[in-house]
Amino acid sequence: MSLLRIALRFLCLLVSFAAIGALPAFAQSSEPACRPEMASYRLPIQRVQLAKDEVRLTFIGHATFLIETPGGVKIATDYNDYVRPPVTPDIATMNKAHSTHYSNRPDPAIKQVLRGWDPEGKGAAHHDLTLGDVRIRNVPTNIRTYDGGTDYDGNSIFVFEIGDLCIAHLGHLHHPLEPGHLRALGRVDIVLFPVDGSYTLDQEGMLEVLKSLQARVMIPMHFFGGGTLERFLSRTRDLWPVERHGEPSITLSKAALPAKPTVIVLPGH
Length: 269
Prior knowledge:
The chain is α/β, with parallel strands linked by helices. It is built from four helices and 14 strands.
């Protein structure tokens, strides 16, 4: 037996003894070693590093997504007290319609809390800022009030520009988009849109919004049970292909976008 083989076998024995406490603490290791069962022994779980042109989207549930940039910036959309991502975001966007879309007690560690309405009621909210490798801006929209009136500029579509990608979160959209909205939005590559068809815009109206945006990736949110989602998808059957993913996270880049507009369904609450 060669000296190298002897040394490797001896090293394996040392690691095995360390795992059962037969060696002093300084000899213990949390790295995977010769025994297969040690491959996950006390190892930290790390997410795959994004390439410079990639973005990771994770559907947390309801209208909340976690958006992660190559530079490590984390964004939570429609941040609220009920459905939150497992990490503290650097940026939290909110909308006003219901308490499941905003929080009066956001985590104080969040660097930027962006409300889609003016809390002082003086008009529309205006956001246009850059943090790390993401630019965030908003396009104000109106919402219905509980008594049937209109709360002008009560919500916002938030737009996230990350590298060559432009992501729009429609929030609690209550009405069709007008030409002025479309001009303000510009090109949208990925749109996150509500499909409940009652609390927000009706499903036929939402289809028209999507047709006007022509985003290459369309990800539904804000649905109550599978029936609501399936009713919407049945309306898209002759319009766009549908992809159903088994994981709530998806990594996207400009170069890898579908050749034509595609609905991508991510599992979520």
